[in-house]
Structure formats: C-alpha cells, structure tokens
Design goal:
Elements lengths: L5 H6 L5 E3 L8 H9 L5 E5 L3 H14 L4 E5 H4 L4 H7 L5 E5 L4 H8 L4 E6 L2 H10 L3 E5 L5 E3 L4 H12 L5 E4 L5 H9 L4 E4 L1 H4 L8 H9 L5 E4 L1 H5 L9 E5 L2 H6 L3 H6 L1 H14 L22 H25 L2
Parallel strand pairs: 1-9, 2-3, 3-4, 4-5, 5-6, 6-8, 8-9
Antiparallel strand pairs: 7-11, 10-11
Length: 326
C-alpha cells in the first residue's frame, strides 16, 4: 500500500513521510531505517558537529541509503565546512531551517541536491521560494523543538495557495499517525515531516528514558519556552522558542526567565550535568504536542506502515462518503 504525491515522485520514495532532522536523535541508523521503509530520512546535522556528522554519514554510506541532511541555517553560517562535508557524500536533499537560505542554495544545487526549506510563516515561505527552494516544509507551532507561533491547520493551506503548485509543500508539527497524514493531504500538502513520532521509535538515538517520557506524556504536558535554551547558554534569535516536555526544571523557571539569567552561573552547570546523566527531571526532552497520540515504541518500519495504512483507509472512506453525498 502506498500513497503517491508530488513529494514521492520528486524524492523517489514510496511513501510521503519524511523524518525530521532532529539534532543528534535522527542519526544514521534511524535515517537508514526510514529509507528502508520507503520514507525519506533526513540526518540531524543540527549545529554542525563535524565529528558526529562524518561518523553518521559513514553509517549511511555503508547502508547504501538514500538520504538528506538537515542543518540549523543561522548556526551553519558560522561553520561552513559542515555543508561541504555533507555535500561530498551526495545527499538527495539538504534541509535548511531557521535563517536565510540564500547564502547556501547555489552551492547545494551545484551538486545536484534538492533544497528543502522549513518555514514558519507565509513571509518566510515567499523568501525561500525566491531563493530557489525545491520543497517547503510548513512547520506549525505544535512541533517539538524550535519553531514559532502559527498553527499548522491554517499555515499549510496558506502556503499551498502561495506556492500555487510550483513546488511541493510538506506539513510538520503535531503529526504522528494516519489521521495527521490524511488531514495534511486534504489541506493541500504533498506529505508530512515527523519528528516526535520517530523519536519514540526503536532505531532513534534518543535515550530510552526520554522515549518513555514521550510515550507516557499527553499533549498538555508540553511547553514552548526559552527556558532550556537559557539553561544551556544557547538562546536562539527571535521569534523562535523551543517546545519540550514539562519537567521540574521547566516548571520552576517558566515565567521567571530573568531570574534564571541572574542565577545562570549556578543553574547552567546543573542543567548540563543533568543532560550528561540523562536526568530528564532537569534536562529537556524535546518533543511536540503529538506525544498525546504516541503510546508505543515501534520500529521506524512499523511507524510508516501504520501511518500509510491508516491514512489510506481514511482517504478512501472520505472519497466514498463524498460520492454518496453527491
């Protein structure tokens, strides 16, 4: 069973499901598993750790996987070597998020790779189109990790209308099952990009304790803030904040960010030590509102198979209902 859309044709995949390039969590093993299951895996290049990136690219080369690589754009501007390192391995696509893609697009396209730009507003979508993006990812505020304020259900059709069929639009944020895929397709998207659902999978590089927290959490247990960015001394430029699971540290400091800054010399070492120790009562589990519909830890293959099967059933049922109502 498969669902064919413009994104499956452009990327040469069986299913319109993309793996979000979660920093360190979306490693070579998870990307290869998504590729083997017929989706499109995007390696989490994140802030540009060259040693980590080289090692995970080696994993993908040994697996003979088709893959993409994702980078945090504003951070990559400070480390141009990581893009060259990725491009040497001939990725199918490079995904750029959070910052102007303009300085990098020509360099990427010279290698034959496609350019995926993640955007959070219609204005950013227009900028990415003008810069020469091949695919847009419309990211709603429901997403885990960094993002902005727009909800997915209005953002996707607005960007789809703006694009006017000139390139595929992929929906991201709060999608973890076939209902999300079917809804995204009905809104005009050509596919979905999922992070949290793949975080809670067998192959992801996330800590098992973090995966269990995702499995046990509800959507009301997430929080969008800058608390964990302050705590790790890595505050992002406005308007981006980060969504993660609520924990004792987030509850203590949310709304008290100025006070946290005043105590940072004391709190930051404790936070970094908690990350190292896997203490998620302090360290953040970066996850989106989709945690409320995630209740297990399956393989990436089973995630994709289940999402496609559910979406296909729903779309067929909707088509049948529409015919009946004519």
């Amino acid at each position: 069973m498969s669902i064919t859309t413009p994104i499956t044709k452009l990327l040469g995949i069986n299913h319109p499901i993309l793996l979000a390039p979660m920093d360190l969590v979306a490693d070579g093993r998870l990307v290869a598993a998504v590729d083997a299951a017929g989706g499109f895996g995007i390696l989490g290049g994140g802030y540009g750790d060259e040693k980590w990136l080289a090692r995970e690219l080696d994993v993908l080369e040994r697996a003979k996987a088709r893959f993409g690589v994702g980078f945090i754009t504003w951070s990559m501007a400070k480390q141009p070597n990581v893009l060259d390192l990725a491009l040497q391995r001939k990725p199918v696509a490079v995904m750029l998020s959070f910052g102007s893609p303009m300085p990098f697009i020509e360099r990427i396209k010279r290698t034959g790779a496609l350019v995926i730009c993640q955007v959070q507003t219609a204005a950013l979508a227009a900028e990415a189109m003008a810069a020469g993006a091949d695919i847009l990812v419309a990211q709603g505020t429901e997403a885990g990790g960094h993002g902005a304020a727009r909800g997915l259900i209005t953002l996707v059709p607005e960007i789809v209308d703006l694009v006017g069929g000139r390139m595929p639009v992929v929906a991201a944020g709060g999608i973890a099952d076939g209902r999300g895929l079917a809804a995204a397709l009905m809104l005009g998207a050509a596919g979905v990009l999922m992070g949290t659902r793949f975080y809670a999978s067998q192959e992801s590089a996330g800590a098992h304790a973090a995966k269990e927290r995702i499995r046990e959490a509800g959507g009301d247990d997430t929080l969008r803030s800058i608390v964990f960015d302050i705590s790790r001394r890595h505050v992002w430029p406005a308007p981006f904040t980060g969504r993660c699971l609520r924990n004792a540290h987030a509850d203590r400091w949310f709304g008290c960010e100025i006070e946290l800054l005043r105590h940072l010399d004391e709190e930051s070492p404790k936070y970094l030590a908690a990350r190292q120790a896997g203490d998620f009562s302090i360290a953040a589990v970066i996850a989106g509102e989709a945690v409320g519909i995630i209740h297990d830890l399956p393989s990436a293959h089973d995630v994709i198979e289940r999402v496609v099967r559910e979406a296909s059933t729903l779309l067929a049922r909707g088509s049948s209902h529409a015919e009946t109502c004519k």
